[in-house]
Amino acid sequence: MTEHSAAPAWRSSDILRAVALAFLVYLALRFLWVARSVIITGTLGVLLGLALSRSVDWLERFGFKRGLAATLIVVIVLGALVGGAMLAAPKVKEQAAQMREKLPAVIDSIDNWLNAHPEVASVVGGELPGAESSGQVGQREPSKQDAANKQDGAAKKSEKTTAGDEKKQPSLSDSLGGELGGLANMLFPFLSNTMAALAGFLLIVFVAIFIASDPDTYRAGMMHLIPRRARPRGAEVLDNIGAVLRSWLVARALAMVAVGLVTWGILALLEVPAAAVLGLLAGLLEFVPFFGPVAAAIPIVGMAVTKSPQTALYAAIAMLVIQQLEGNLITPLLLESRVDVPPALTIIGVAAMGLAFGLLGMLIAEPVLAATLAATKMLYVSDALGDTSVEPEPESS
Question: Does pTM surpass 0.85?
Answer without folding.
Answer: no
